[in-house]
Amino acid sequence: MKMQIQTRLVVLGVLTAGLLFSAPQSEAIQLTGYPLEHAPINLTDTASLQRGARTFVNYCMGCHTLQYQRWSQLGKRLHLDHQALRELMFLQTKPTQMMTNAMPVQEATRWFGAAPPDLSVIVDQKGSNWVYTYLQSFYVDPSRPTGVNNAVFYRVAMPDPFWQTQGLQRIVYRRVRHNGYLVNQFVKFVPVTKGTLSPRAFRRQVGDLTNFLAMVSHPDELKRIHLGIWVIAFCVVFTILAYALKREYWKDVHRKHPHGK
Ligand code: HEC
Which of 28, 176, 247, 259 has the smallest count of CB within 10 Å of its CB? Predict the structure, then answer.
């Protein structure tokens, strides 16, 4: 038993040393040539929004809030019945409360070096593609207090929320000359540990989450889509009516003056 623990410690030590000394891949760097990925936003996909809300509550709400979003409103927008909403908001007491958490800002700043911002309008601020890419772009970096860095948010203070479902990855880049400066150009990510989700399932997890955050950022978008459909339907019906009326109106005129006289 004792032997086993020692063996494990040695393995752990070797792994840590491996990470520490596998520089330059894992030193803190600022990157070029790292493209944003296109986020799969579809605000009419209720199942996706529901999955995204669940991921947000489980993975993000410990640190982040949605201070303009009421639980009860969320339930309505996601078509959740009372029971489903209760399950989603396991930490909260009243559905009329806002989606906030109990983390004091000062403490958070002390723990992470930066306060986790409210995410109510993050998709408006940064764009859905940025959020989608950011959440997939953490990589191992032992020089950071959290052990990770991020390819679109250099020296980020947030730990990787998906280190288990995605698995850890390390970064490979090359130094190139760009306008006379040496810059680090992104080459690829290489998996370090295996995620509990397949790469495809992980992308869906992050896609649904981004979709959910997009919905929170654009509270009236869905209403606008539905309203738009009605407006167009009205225009079509009105055009048909107007045409019928015009025919009816001119019928007599044409009959009395068949050759336009
Ligand atoms: C352990 C706490 C913690 C958890 C869990 C966490 N974050 Fe963060 N997050 C932070 C901190 C701290 C920052 C501020 C980073 C900085 O300024 O360097 C941050 C920053 C962000 C930003 C960038 C905000 C900006 O203004 O640029 C986004 C987007 C974000 N988090 C999304 C998420 C999402 C989505 C989840 C859930 C999957 C999540 N975070 C989970 C602590 C956390």
Answer: 259
Distance 230 CA to ligand 1 centre (A): 39
How many CB atoms within 10 Å of residue 164? 13
| Each residue's pLDDT tens digit, 200-221 | 999 999 999 999 999 999 877 7
Pair 31, 186: CB distance under 8 Å? yes
Q: Report the C-alpha gap between 173 and 184 in whole angstroms.
A: 6
Q: What separation in Å is there between the alpha carbon of 103 and the centre of ligand 1? A: 13
Please give the single-letter amino acid code of residue 118.
D
The reported pLDDT for the residue numbered 108 is 81
- The per-residue pLDDT for range 28-68, each reduced to its tens digit, is 456 888 999 999 999 999 999 999 999 999 999 989 999 98
Report whether residue 77 contacts ligand 1, using a CB cutoff of 6 Å: no
Sequence-separated (6 or more) residues with CB below 8 Å from residue 113:
145, 157
Residues in contact with 116: Cβ distance below 8 Å, sequence separation at least 6, in sequence order: 63, 64, 103, 108, 158
59 lines ligand 1 (CB under 6 A): yes
- Ligand 1: nearest atom to the Cα of 60: 37
Q: What is the mean pLDDT of the chain?
A: 85
Contact (CB, 8 A) for 15 and 193: no
Task: Specify the long-range contacts of residues 188-191, CB closer than 8 Å, at least 24 apart.
Answer: 189/139, 191/167
Residue nearest to atom 34 of ligand 1 (CA): 60
| CA neighbours closer than 13 Å in the CB half-sphere of residue 212 | 24
Q: Which residue is closest in CA terms to ligand 1's atom 29?
A: 131
